[in-house]
Amino acid sequence: MSNFTDNGLSPTSRYNDGSYIKKNNTYHIHDSPWKAAQIDKIISRNKLNISKICEIGCGAGKILKQLSFNPKFTSTAFSGYEVSKSAFDLCLPLESENLKFYLEDLLNKDITYDVVLCIDVFEHVENYMGFLKKLRHKGKYKIFHIPLDLSVSSLIRKRLIYSRDQVGHLHYFSPETAIETLKDCGYEIIDTMFTLSLINSPEKSFKTKLLNFPRKLLFAISPNLMSTLIGGASLMVIAK
Question: What pTM, to 2 d.p., does this model score?
């Protein structure tokens, strides 16, 4: 049983008591260039006109930093919001003229943006539906990246407990439940695309590498089927 439960603490206390950064000391910055590229891809294919972008739960801030380097966004103002002090400390050195970070909860701010990024975030939030309902009012468009933890393989290999203990996932989604969750919270789905998160991550275990060949093969046939059977995909969604 998790120490968080044994101590009577909230599972999300790990982000401020040092436990999360002890297990994830880089806040997954190795994935940031790839995630920024996926965000750019879905923004471009939907031809969004953007002057202000923010990210809620921006972690170490590297996704926003990567986007700020993109020539398409030279006139865009970027804002990152983070409630973990340890993550915020990693963000501050990345600030620039068009990129600012705030140790604040965006949901408590009277402010809106053209686009709000929510990248691998709401699966960590205890009251995730309440979080999503409030977030809906913070921007014209919301871009989500949602890990699809639920698969036949993850259930057989008991990977959900690993996701819970190591990276703090409290909720687990399939493509269908991810979309229905957003709809239930009042979102209008504009576009979706699958991403091959585990294949493209530079930090791959030996077991992950073994599964990557069937992942690639099945993904070419049906991303949904690959996600359901083997896992390793995430879902990117643009919603209003």
Answer: 0.85
